[in-house]
Predict the structure.
Amino acid sequence: MWDEKYNVENYIYGIEPNDFLKENITVLPKGEVLCLAEGEGRNAVFLAKNGYQVTAVDSSSVGLEKAKRLADENGVSIEFIHCDLSLYDLGEHKWDGIVSIFCHVPEEIRKMLHKGIVKGLKQSGILLLEAYTPAQLEYETGGPPTTDLMYSEKILREELAGISFSRLVEIERKIVEGSYHTGLGAVVQAIGSPIDI
């Protein structure tokens, strides 16, 4: 499905970074950052241009080819990994930052991924996440077609129980990111780090 979507000349989500990431990049410690479901590379390239060592994972080889092209055009080096997130091992205490922007996957994979995020972050690491909530279906301005692929504050509190949040809110905001995300949207935003135990 994603290979098909990405197999066009233009970047379907644009080449500019996600606004929430752009506004909060300074919360991410300088170091190794993992971008989940990175697609065509806009967020990974932005992070790399700002001095981060970036690893970008996506299941679409077509998306990653476009991401590599965008990285080359911007003169940055990024490690691209072609892998389904259900199979990707985030490691233990490995990442200074994990960025999850509109990473909508089935519930079973999401729960596993969230466990991996808690385990994969360094003690001082930061998770930065934005995703659509079920209310997004009323807006029809982008995102998954069904609520089971959506996120909520409640889901994030439960599935990321090992994370202490400095920000966790459900809000409406205008999202203009290429042709696939355009207009008012209902999102959940999260910034947090592992609980000190």
